[in-house]
Design goal:
alpha/beta, Glutaredoxin, 3 domains, six-stranded mixed beta sheet, five-stranded mixed beta sheet, 15 helices, 16 strands, 37% helix, 17% strand, Protein disulfide-isomerase A6, repeat, isomerase, PDI_thioredoxin-like_dom
């Protein structure tokens, strides 16, 4: 059960401070600061495990992973990312469960999922097969290696990806934008600025690609546009500030290499992602897509609208929205339905008769679920999800071993419920005198 729950959910709180690998192992510990340098810019083939220290499957894999790393030393690079601690890296590569293994071959920006066994022999065999494919591609004319250098001119990046700011366009471009901005204030004569320029340019290209333009890098000549420099208290060059809509700018505290800048940008991207949408289960497609696309789907069965009214239902939905926002980095889907609307779903989760509101967390890959036993509140739901994350909850198999049939229903209109209208009873042909004579 503990191993299953390690796959069920990411950790809400890092409860184990210790990784699974040490410097004495042949496994390279990777993090946002060194990942681009070690993996993306490397010509080597890499096998990378994304793990969580509390994950039972990860603990079982660790000795096999170490043996494979030793066997492949000097041939194939073997690394590991504590994705519970460095969730920006896990999110970047779509990690939805632990352990996840990816093979970074010829195109480092499109790694392949490892689907083999979890023994050291299976891992080594897969690595050697991937290596043969890489060599074959190179013989066929595909360059392989670090495709970043090909995309951005040997690591120079595209200067067009660094947005040029002026006094005239700053507010419109940066302050009014929903995106996150890293802005460098520079002086053309500044030696440190000249050293930063190629790193800033290369990082701008990579960040734009990795965040789909949601985090952007810009530069502003503070000797020309002195109004901006004065406005933001620029006293030395280069100065880098982070701008997020509606917030005061903050000083950038990271390193000045491309990998450092990219790592910080990805953290900002992870912080700025919107909360997942809270959806009503209106048809089979909504349930299937949410539970299959996300690592975990959280489903609430709320009381009938006649029992709570609109205000009562909205209070429950607000609790769910708050929790979805709080745990938005965890890649979970959030759903709700009304009691009685999806009876087969309730039956498959053992909710019927458990009381409303009720909540279940489903791992559709394992077809396992766990039920909220505490209060339907921020505190109760947080504790429920935390218990799951550390393997202390109890789970059961989804009834029938598959997602149940879902009825197609109308979306809630946001209003109070109305009692169904009853047909008037016509008593014109009833002899009331005869009724009075009936014995009781």
């Amino acid at each position: 059960m503990r191993a299953l729950l390690g796959v069920l959910a990411c950790s809400l709180t890092v409860l184990s401070a210790y990784g699974l690998y040490t410097s004495s192992d042949d496994v390279v510990e990777l993090n946002p600061s060194n990942f681009n340098r070690e993996v993306i810019q490397s010509d080597s083939l890499w096998l990378v495990e994304f793990y969580a220290p509390w994950c039972g499957h990860c603990k079982s894999l660790a000795p096999e992973w170490k043996k494979a790393a030793t066997a492949l030393k000097g041939i194939v690079k073997v690394g590991a990312v504590d994705a519970d601690q460095h969730n920006s890296l896990g999110g970047q590569y779509g990690v939805r469960g632990f352990p996840t293994i990816k093979i970074f071959g010829g195109n480092k920006h499109k790694p392949e999922d490892y689907q083999g066994g979890r023994t050291n022999q299976a891992i080594v065999d897969a690595a050697l097969n991937a290596l043969r494919s890489l060599v074959k591609d190179r013989l066929g004319g595909k360059t392989g290696g670090s495709d970043y250098s090909r995309q951005s001119g040997g690591g120079a990046g595209n200067k067009k990806d660094v947005v040029e700011l002026t006094d005239d366009n700053f507010d419109r471009t940066v302050l009014e934008s929903d995106d996150v901005w890293l802005v460098e204030f520079f002086a053309p004569w500044c030696g440190h600025c000249k050293n930063l320029e190629p790193e800033w340019t290369a990082a701008a290209t990579e960040v734009k690609e990795q965040t789909k333009g949601k985090v952007r890098l810009a530069a502003e000549d503070a000797t020309v546009h002195q109004g901006l420099a004065s406005r933001f208290g620029i006293r030395g060059f280069p100065t880098i500030k982070v701008f997020r809509k509606g917030e005061e700018p903050e000083d950038y505290q990271g390193g000045r290499t491309r990998s450092d800048i990219v790592a910080r940008a990805l953290e900002l991207y992870s912080d700025n992602i919107p909360a997942p949408e809270l959806q009503e289960v209106l048809n089979e497609g909504i349930l299937k897509k949410t539970c299959e696309d996300y690592q975990l789907c959280i489903i609430a069965v709320l009381p009938h609208i006649l029992d709570t009214g609109a205000s009562g239902r909205n209070s429950y939905l607000e609790v769910m929205k708050t929790m979805a926002e709080k745990h938005k980095k965890k890649m979970w889907g959030w759903l709700w339905t009304e009691a009685g609307a999806q009876m087969e779903l309730e039956a498959s989760l053992g909710i019927g008769g458990f009381g409303y509101p009720a909540m279940a967390a489903i791992n559709s890959r394992k077809m396992k679920f766990a039920l909220l036993k505490g209060s339907f509140s921020e505190t109760g739901i947080h504790e429920f999800l935390r218990e799951l994350s550390v393997g202390r909850g109890s789970t059961a198999t989804v009834g029938g071993g598959a997602l149940p049939k879902i009825n197609t229903v109308q979306a809630w209109d946001g209003k109070d419920g109305e009692l169904p209208m009853e047909d008037d009873i016509d008593l014109s042909d009833v002899d009331l005198d005869d009724l009075e004579k009936d014995e009781l």
